[in-house]
Amino acid sequence: MTEPDRFASVRYLVDDVRAAVDFYTTHLGFTLNTDAAPAFADVVRGPLRLLLSGPTSSGARATVGVADTPGGNRIHLIVADLDAEIARLRDAGLSFLNEVVAGPGGRQILLSDPAGNLVELFQPAE
Predict the structure, then answer these.
(1) What pLDDT, in 10s, does the model give residues 71-113?
(2) Are the C-beta atoms of 101 and 109 separated by less than 8 Å?
């Protein structure tokens, strides 16, 4: 069990826990914390604990009718070099949902996990 004051946890509903674990650990630097696939797993990156709840998990059943599909919320991952991350992930066969968006705070781009949950890669402005 994780310590509640050590991590901030976010739950993503996924249709394939194994595919989600592979996505986050292979491409985005998360490490596997708990593996109870196919129902549930959680992965950790820094202070973020990402709960990956499959269709048979209690977390997914608790939201039936409210969140049957992934929503517009997203996790926000800070990267040092956005262009290098984009190139690395494209070389791995991933595609992005948009082009890079720049604003006063920095630059960002979106991709989705295998279930369609959004991940924002963000490089802060200098």
Answers:
(1) 557 788 989 999 999 999 999 999 999 899 888 888 889 899 9
(2) yes
User: Residue 69: pLDDT band by 50, 70, 90 thresholds?
Assistant: low
The continuous run of DSSP H or E covering 41 comes out as strand 40-45
Spell out the domain ranges in the chain.
Answer: 8-124
| Amino acid (one-letter) located at 93 | G
Q: What angle do CA 74, 80, 81 make, to 5 degrees?
A: 95
Q: How far apart are CA 7 and CA 18, in angstroms?
A: 22
Q: Which residue, among 92, 59, 80, 72, has the nearest Cα to 123 in the 3D structure?
A: 80
43 near 31, Cβ under 8 Å?
yes
Cα–Cα distance measured from residue 67 to residue 63, given in angstroms and rounded to the nearest whole number:
6
The CATH code belonging to domain 8-124 is 3.10.180.10
